[in-house]
Design goal:
379 residues; alpha+beta; six-stranded antiparallel β-sheet; two-stranded antiparallel sheet; 40% helix; binds zinc ion; Transposase domain-containing protein
């Protein structure tokens, strides 16, 4: 490994040498020579290295260029969060009244966030709790409108340099074409940072912005190599552990279960299944599909998740016309269309009679009518 971010020669990409300002290490140099794989392996800058990295054993691995910077930590949790703290934290540049007004604007603007946004942006009173996705929403979408007319024009113009540069770098179609422009904007942003916020705040992350455009050229847009998806999966892994006893085994078992569920499709149900636990009127209480048990009487084995993420509780099953299984749920049925043998989950009210149902495949009225006349089902 290499020295941490408080080290004088901590930049993993260049030879910028830090200095101490008010008990903080700052990296102010912007024109230092870049590090190379060759000199890294020779440990020429000896104090940059803490020990020999195991990655040096990987074939065709460049110890500088094959290790891209991560924009979740560098830009969002790093620079964007620092600017928010400088503007609105205690002893900040703007009074609480301005913070409150911007917060109001954020809550108004955030109501327009489309549902594809993973997390709705909360107000500035919760900014200490903002997750990476919220900082991303602020930097790329809501920040410019929320800040305009509330912070000084100098701070606003300076923030826009970062906003525009990162907007270019997250866009697949712009990140290479306008890479040089993004680099110029970030260079100006870094150069002006100390002027507006003081040298002591010119931190490691601010310096790293110098190098992010080169990583985009090598790896594509920022989301291509960000830690977002790994961080969100870490949360999922944590949720697998329900007790302190044998946590690794619990994680392993949940992952194996998930893999077996993801391989199960409704179409496969008809191919390899066996019904168990016969009830009245041709119903069954359990079904074994490709070694996965669904038990209508059990709380933990009776739920299925549809492709749209919706959870359904299955109550019982039945067999009709000696062919296809029916899976009956609280308000839903699984039907098989004879026209092409495809399956779908429908609401019970869509069932017309034993041989037909409504099915608004594209949610257009005429399509549904057509489906009624053409499609039949075998439950
Ligand atoms: Zn550097």
């Amino acid at each position: 490994g290499i020295v941490g971010h408080t080290g004088y020669n901590s930049c993993p990409k260049c030879h910028a040498y830090g200095r101490r300002v008010e008990n903080r290490t700052v990296l102010l140099e912007t024109d230092s020579p870049l590090r190379t794989d060759h000199e890294f392996r020779l440990k020429i800058d000896s104090t940059h290295h803490k020990n020999v990295s195991i990655f040096e054993q990987l074939p065709n691995f460049n110890m500088i260029n094959s290790v891209p910077l991560d924009y979740l930590h560098t830009i969002l949790l790093g620079v964007m969060r620092k600017m928010l703290d400088l503007w609105f934290d205690t002893k900040s540049l703007y009074p609480p009244s301005i913070k409150a007004k911007i917060s109001q604007k954020i809550s108004l603007l955030s109501t327009y966030e489309p549902k594809e946004f993973q997390r709705r942006l909360r107000g500035l009173e919760k900014m200490k709790l903002w997750k990476g996705n919220e900082l991303r929403t602020f930097l790329l979408f809501i920040g410019p409108s929320a800040l305009k007319d509330y912070i000084s024009n100098e701070h606003f113009q300076h923030f826009l340099l970062l906003h525009i540069a990162i907007t270019i770098l997250v866009d697949e179609s712009l990140c290479i074409k306008f890479n040089a422009i993004a680099k110029d904007l970030l260079y100006k942003f870094i150069e002006e940072f100390s002027f507006y916020y003081g040298e002591k705040n010119h931190s490691f992350n601010v310096h790293l912005l110098l190098h992010i455009c080169d990583d985009v050229i090598r790896n594509g847009s920022l989301d291509n190599f960000s830690a977002f998806k790994f961080e969100s999966y870490l949360g999922k892994i944590k949720s697998f552990v329900k007790s302190p006893h044998q946590p690794v085994e619990q994680i392993h078992n949940r992952i194996i279960e998930l893999l077996s569920i993801s391989q199960l499709s409704i179409n496969e149900c008809a191919l390899n299944y066996s019904l168990k636990n016969p009830l009245e009127n041709g119903f069954y209480g359990k079904i074994l599909i490709n070694d996965v048990l669904i038990d209508g009487s059990s709380t933990c084995d009776s739920f299925v998740q549809l492709n749209n993420g919706e959870l359904l509780k299955i109550l019982r099953f039945r067999l009709l016309e000696n062919e296809i299984i029916a899976i009956e749920m609280d308000d839903f049925l699984v039907v098989v269309f004879t026209i092409d043998d495809s399956c779908a989950v429908i609401r019970k009210e869509w069932l017309v009679d034993q041989n037909s149902c409504f099915f608004p495949s594209t949610f257009e009225y005429h399509q549904a009518m057509k489906a009624k006349s053409k499609s039949s089902y075998r439950t």
